[in-house]
Design brief:
globular; 277 residues; alpha/beta; disordered N terminus; binds zinc ion; 11 helices; TIM Barrel
Length: 277
């Protein structure tokens, strides 16, 4: 396979948050002009908008809507808060259906006021509660394991093994996992766990960016592919070795890149996708 075959842009998707300074209409226009074929929409980009019309606008730009980010945040010590979280996830499912997104990425959440094992149980119960809604709407749910540095508040699911385990226990065609290189690159079991979710047909999304060394902010210092130390091509090989042929999604939250000219950033994303993914 030549480089142009393996690294054309036909499977390149960008998360709307990556170019956060652009409203979604502008992102759509500029992504399409750059040859990008997919978009994952963050819910903040939809605030105050007609969601159906926004979906149509994205399709009019020939963009596939890959997923809606994000649902989750199920655990809370307080039962009333857990119920609110489930309601919000049901709302996210409705939004995804209106938008025409086939998948919601779940950042599962954690409550530092209780043991991780309890948070994990509540995540499982939360997902189980919304599976009927997801099935009715035709929207899948992808459990995204997050790097353990976020285990206090963002996610009690920190390895692909944990995500696989939960998807297998829930055992629904509507529930799978999302593999994000930023969260998982360090894991010695990664290759085996990617194989496992592929075999169970649970691999639903693949997110890329890079891990800068040093990283100066736990949340907002993600690198563009090629700026850091993640073996992205290797991980992509493992992912595609399972038969995965979905979009490769660029998801970068970066205070540094958000300050740059976004047109220049988009050009760099396209270039880096060809060279480092
Ligand atoms: Zn991700």
């Amino acid at each position: 396979m030549t480089i142009s075959e393996s690294n054309d842009l036909s499977r390149l998707c960008i998360h709307s948050i990556t170019t956060k300074p652009w409203p979604i209409e502008e992102a759509a226009k500029h992504y399409a002009a750059a040859g990008v074929k997919g978009i994952t929409v963050w819910r903040d980009a939809l605030e105050g908008k007609n969601i159906q019309k926004t979906g149509q606008l994205l399709r009019d730009h020939d963009l596939s809507i890959v997923s809606l980010c994000r649902g989750g945040f199920f655990p809370a010590k307080d039962a009333a808060k857990r119920k609110l979280a489930i309601d919000d996830n049901r709302k996210a499912i409705e939004e995804a259906a209106q938008l025409g997104a086939p998948l919601i990425v779940l950042v599962c959440g954690a409550d530092p006021g209780q043991p991780l094992a309890i948070s994990r149980q509540q995540i499982q119960e939360g997902i189980a509660a919304i599976i009927p809604d997801a099935a009715a709407a035709g929207v899948k749910l992808a459990i995204e394991p997050l790097h353990p540095m976020y285990a206090d508040t963002r996610s009690a699911i920190n390895t692909l093994a944990q995500a696989n385990e939960m998807a297998e226990v829930l055992n629904s065609p509507w529930v799978g996992v999302a593999v994000d290189v930023y969260h998982l690159w360090w894991d010695p079991c990664l290759e085996a766990e990617i194989k496992r979710c592929g075999q169970n047909e649970n691999l639903m999304a693949f997110h890329v960016c890079d891990w800068k060394s040093p990283t100066t902010d736990m949340l907002l210092d993600r690198g563009l592919m090629g700026e850091g130390c993640i073996p992205i091509k290797q991980i992509r090989k493992w992912v595609e070795g399972t038969g995965f042929n979905g979009f490769i999604e660029v998801e970068i939250f970066s205070n540094r890149w958000w300050k740059e000219d976004q047109h220049l950033f988009l050009k760099q994303i396209v270039k880096a996708s060809r060279e480092y993914v």
